[in-house]
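Bench notes, afternoon.
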Amino acid sequence: MSGQSAPRRTVLKGAVLAGAAGLGVAACSTESKLGHAKPLPSTPVSLGAPDEVPVGGSKLYREQRIIVSCPAEGEFKAFSAQCTHAGCVLDKIEKEEGNCPCHGSRFDVTTGDVLQGPATVSLPAIPVKVEGGKLVAGPEA
């Protein structure tokens, strides 16, 4: 063998590192419209009393992965609280912005719109209504 060709071990190591780098890029890819987010509730979810959501404000129901805003008395909007980039659950709401603790995406919790990436897709809307004195979100709500 000539001294000019790369040793087999070096070539294999480079191939493994290139493959691992490709997997890392794929894991943070925004090609999927919902990243790694779990599906929206498949059955109605009771969230509690409607007055827990302040008029003109929002509330994060982290365990249920839902955000509810109340733009006017008796009017409610709900969105998934899972970041559309990688599926992390938003951890807090500050000034009507939902924060993703994983990669820093920020969302308008009154519209679901992306305010700051890496997410590129808005939070999906979830039907919500008041039923029997409770907020209920999910299909047929």
